[in-house]
Amino acid sequence: MKTRKILIILAVSLTAVLALTACGGGNQSQQEAGTFPIPEPDYNAKLSRDFTPFEEAMSTLTDERRGEIEALMNTATIPDIQNAFDAGFIT
Fold this sequence. Notes:
Elements (H helix, E strand, L loop, with lengths): L1 H21 L5 H6 L21 H5 L3 H13 L2 H10 L4
């Protein structure tokens, strides 16, 4: 019985150590340095997006049209959306 308790304690301890190691909980240097949460890195490969081709289409989008599309999307099934595309209601 005593051996079983020891084995259970060892298994639980090992599981805890593995879980902490897997999620980075064992990295004491970052915790001690107080860098949590880890700051977002400065990406140098970010692409800037150019939405100017859509400005004309967006300028003609009225609140009424926006409401029609929103109503469709809130209740539509996939076949409803496909039919809306086929009918030219949405593009």
